[in-house]
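Help wanted!
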Amino acid sequence: MIRQYSQKEFKEAFIAAKTKKQPFDSDVLQTVKHILDDIRNRGDEAVKEYTKKFDGLAAASLLVSKKERENAWNDVAPEVITALKKAADNIRSFHSKQLQTSRVMEMTDDIVSGQLFRPLERVGIYVPGGKASYPSTVLMNAIPAKLAGVKKIVMTTPARDGKNIPPVLSVAADIAGVDTIYKIGGSQAIGALAYGTEQIEAVDKIVGPGNAYVAAAKSLVFGDVGIDMIAGPSEVAIIVDESAHPPYVAADLIAQAEHDEKARSFLFCTSKALLAKTLEEVKRQCEELPRKDIAEISLANEGAAVLVDTIDEAFSLVNALAPEHLEIQTKNALHHLSKVKNAGSVFIGHHTPEAVGDYFAGPNHVLPTVGTARFSSGLSVDDFIKKTTYVYYSENALRQAAPYVETLAQEEELDGHARAVKVRLEQ
Amino acid sequence: MIRQYSQKEFKEAFIAAKTKKQPFDSDVLQTVKHILDDIRNRGDEAVKEYTKKFDGLAAASLLVSKKERENAWNDVAPEVITALKKAADNIRSFHSKQLQTSRVMEMTDDIVSGQLFRPLERVGIYVPGGKASYPSTVLMNAIPAKLAGVKKIVMTTPARDGKNIPPVLSVAADIAGVDTIYKIGGSQAIGALAYGTEQIEAVDKIVGPGNAYVAAAKSLVFGDVGIDMIAGPSEVAIIVDESAHPPYVAADLIAQAEHDEKARSFLFCTSKALLAKTLEEVKRQCEELPRKDIAEISLANEGAAVLVDTIDEAFSLVNALAPEHLEIQTKNALHHLSKVKNAGSVFIGHHTPEAVGDYFAGPNHVLPTVGTARFSSGLSVDDFIKKTTYVYYSENALRQAAPYVETLAQEEELDGHARAVKVRLEQ
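Answered by r_m:
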């Protein structure tokens, strides 16, 4: 069961421990480095070998064919298709309001300056395999890229049981606008996307979640291509007062905990009685949960419940923690939004469980974890845009600027910089 | 002298080699890791030991005092102060137009959603030491942070000759709005900023250039704090046609090359005669340059001149290269801006040498290098902002969404997610 901490304990010991990045296992790094080098040297041949070895798939082409993508639609339940389309509409609507246009900062006869906004050309999306399939990952990563204007979106995901990819991922890819899908998983997928092979064109940026091998591969290819982030364990912090409903709060703590054993559920409560009731309710609801074993380990090892003096104190702890998800289940919940400084995404009020945002409401579910919300943001259209500044000076503008530029260049002992100005004005 | 390449050679061999990230030296990484661990464990004591060892400074406090900062103004030439103030005005004006406000994506009785824009709370700026001082680094890094609303801007730079920091850096810090300055250099500065000590409060993000040790330290602390980027060698690509002036073009190639021996100067020219004249002019101008030795090595080892068939072909090569700086010295230069896909910053026309942007015009000079302009952007106000999404659902909105959320949660085998919705609607 969730352990209780005092405000002081939580502040002094817990936050520092929970906002420290988790280093990669050096064996994993070594293995992945070898695979990446191999793919860089041997291309498709290496990709096929690893795909046969790890996913049991031996095929001449790892591309998901047009036919396969068409057929996938027959293998997905209609209500799932409808739900994916509705979710995609909401995600598209929310993210379309993030679009920005190139800017002009200054425009006179003598000076023109500004910022160009340009989409990335090619983006790769990694979608993990495993027992379950995660079509929401496809929507959340591909839709912002598509809206940004990315020309080619390539998705890779491992084949299941040595055969095809799960049809629901193919359908989600169609809905989100993914151009090409490959049946490749693990670090070999990251290597193929980063460096390209005979069959697979290298991309400019790779996004999407994955296991320790995928994460290590992303960290190693970063710099040669862009990456979104290296995600740590998923987290929720819930701030509640006496107006909250213990069954709702408990359900949300459990929904977080069912992800995996390292997931983190934090509760900050101003009422001792409601805190006790909520913890009882967590116990009760866990009993009926299919993923009970995972959730109970997560709650016991990683969870925390803190009785706080005031809502403000709760926000102070939460801002120090900088959680991936924050729920505010209090009276006048929207009013407290102003107190949020560090969080990935905020869910406001008694009827906004995180699950609504995970799948449906529109905001992205790819969010900063492990305290990185102090300095970084969830996935957005901005992640698929480059900003290039530009400036034009007329001869007259250069003449006005010359004395200052020359003074500063000489101060920095870069005489060639001063000369680049002088040579243009001396004739 | 600059080596000439054919279009084909440049495309096939040169670009791939010049857009590959440069791995850290493992000895440097090891040394830096030790220093960071030491600072994490021993705090100020360790910082002071390293500062004494590497910078020859033994002092009870490493803080630059108010008195020292006031006195610095007497030790900087008035024309330098004026030039810094003028440059700061331009940088402030350009970057202020990047400011964005929090967004509302949807607002009805049932749904409120959007993005909060929040400044980072504390930012650290590293300013390198060495023979020369770089006040422009202070302006370019601190001004966007200040505009973004960062509450505390901390700068560190090593003391010179075991005494004080260069007065011009202190003055630039005052002009740019830096709150606190410490006399700390190298990886120990990065460690102190990332993890905090008794005297130095930890920051949320560290920006600014530095040598191999500083770069390695930034890469190691990344994740615990944010960083701007790991800069590679500085680059310029210059596209010219027959309208260009060889002395201007040559001066700009040399200005780039004088930075250091690894700096890269690339020329793309549609005219064989003008290309030859420009290379002659490079030779001639180099003779008179104070940093001649550095520039000549840089040009010979890292430079490239390519005779191109057309301007479009030049842009195709440049977009593949994704250079840090791009100059367009052609007829109707502004018209060609539309062809730029991948570049850090663009300088347009015959009278806009890169030097104007390095110091004065307003756009930032902290820019992506080594091909990373394919997927990343120069420093801007955005780097000091976090975007937090938020969503409120009423009971009614949740009821409308429930079937879809439940379907998707069940499809992903996360029953607890479906239950978090159900529990709110069943009473």
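OP: Thanks! One thing I noticed: The longest strand of chain A covers residues 111-119.
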